[in-house]
Design goal:
By secondary structure, this protein is α+β, with helices and mostly antiparallel strands. It has 7 helices and 23 strands. Helices cover about 15% and strands about 30% of the residues.
Length: about 425
């Protein structure tokens, strides 16, 4: 990747200092510069930078000339949507006094089911801003430096899951809204502890499932570390979670500590959630065959079919073969298929049937050419840190968060590796 000439000198100098283990005397400014000098950085919260007066809310490092530094509000979303529980305040997010950039906030396991605090930038303050990454051809990266104590849910992003699902927790809800998802980074979801990227084209669900299912999971998994551990253990436990969505390849990738790795899901047909993607793949394949096929559902929405590219064969292995029939395992970039062939009268082999036996979770292929683009600030979600708004009101992720950065491009592996090198902790000023 060729960097813009104006960015290159300062960026490379920061990277070289980091690689050599040398930073400016204060240490922390050099670390911050490594993040903010990375091309495409639109916002970086280090939980050190605050408003100079007034509420003293956390604000983001933003590019020169930016009109918005995205101050974070403390909100209890249960109070906002159910009318239950107390208001959230900044004191509900304990500070560590240390971290990759000198400070960190704690997301605690709240015992009160009416209390789910998070930090957010309201939609009205981010709509159509550089943080509002949406529409066709848009790529995005989210990086979060965190210590995971427990849970697998949201770390940061624009991912309002909606409060419209019919379940016990939504009985008596006062404010019902459909999903308003765009992009977000999670601490694993279906693969707890992994770095899980999530994107949505419609803000709502995927493949006729009730949930959004376009997500990736890093091969590596973060450990669970008590948030009350001694300082030396916490200092050694920082992880760099990241997700990238590259619109040019339509690949969504999860990265933990600068490494993506391959992750496959065997037997997607039998998975509790990904079976919906299996059905979307099956319907996509059947619809591509002339005529109405056995098992084909013509009512299945065409925009929810899932058919990753299968034009380039990676590997073929013969599972079984007889005089009249052969079964092959064919691997493509995003799928593995069991293909059955039968010998014809002319001695040649003809495909008789196929089945999806494995689906690649990292990277995940996204079939749409756009990220959800809300029409106005009333149909889009906020940017949240620590939790997201959702119907189940679960505890979600718990642990320490020491930095959140958003980029309006898909960072390259070497850039993510450099950001991961910032995991060591330093004391705040």
């Amino acid at each position: 990747m060729r960097l813009p000439s104006l960015c290159r000198p300062r960026l490379l100098s920061s990277f070289l200092l980091l690689a050599a283990g040398e930073l400016p005397a204060s240490g922390i400014p050099g670390r911050v510069a490594v993040v903010t000098d990375t091309p495409g950085c639109v916002a970086f919260w280090d939980f050190v930078k605050r408003e100079p007066a007034g509420a003293r809310r956390f604000t983001a490092h933003v590019p020169p000339g930016a009109k918005n530094d995205f101050p974070l509000e403390a909100v209890n979303y249960v109070r906002d949507y159910w009318g239950e529980g107390r208001e959230a305040v900044y004191a509900d997010f304990p500070l560590l006094g240390r971290g990759p950039f000198g400070q960190a906030i704690r997301i605690r396991r709240e015992a009160d089911a009416t209390y789910r605090p998070l930090l957010l930038v309201p939609r009205a303050r981010l709509h159509d801003s550089p943080l509002d990454i949406k529409g066709s051809g848009k790529s995005v990266t989210v990086v979060v430096w965190a210590i995971r104590e427990s849970g697998n849910h949201a770390l940061a992003g624009i991912w309002h899951e909606g409060t419209d699902l019919k379940q016990a927790e939504t009985a008596g809800i006062r404010r019902v809204e459909r999903g308003q998802r765009q992009y977000a980074l999670f601490a694993g979801l279906n693969k707890e502890g992994s770095a899980c990227g999530h994107v949505s084209e419609n803000g709502a669900s995927s493949f006729l499932n009730r949930y959004a299912l376009h997500k990736s999971n890093s091969a590596d998994v973060s450990p669970a570390v008590s948030g009350d551990s001694p300082a030396d253990l916490l200092d050694a436990s920082w992880q760099c979670f990241a997700m990238t969505y590259d619109a040019s390849t339509r690949e969504l990738t999860g990265w933990l500590n600068g490494r993506a790795g391959d992750r496959w899901l065997e037997n997607p047909k039998g998975d509790r959630l990904i079976s919906s993607a299996y059905q979307a793949w099956l319907q996509g394949w059947l619809r591509g065959i002339p005529g109405l096929q056995e098992g084909e559902d013509r009512a299945f929405p065409s925009d929810q079919l899932y058919h990753p590219p299968e034009d380039r064969l990676v590997e073929t292995n013969i599972i079984s073969e007889s005089a009249g029939e052969r079964v092959e395992l064919r691997e493509f970039r995003y799928t593995r298929l069991k293909v059955t062939l039968r010998r014809g009268a002319d001695g040649g082999w003809t495909e008789f049937g196929r089945d999806l036996v494995a689906l690649r979770l990292n990277p995940w292929w996204f079939p749409h050419d756009r990220l959800y683009s809300p029409a106005n600030d009333g149909s889009g979600g906020p940017f949240t840190i620590g939790r997201v708004i959702h119907s189940s009101r679960g505890v979600g992720f718990t642990g320490w968060i020491g930095g959140v950065a958003v980029f309006d491009r898909a960072l390259q592996p070497e850039e993510l590796a450099r950001l991961a090198e910032l995991r060591s902790a330093v004391a705040g000023g």
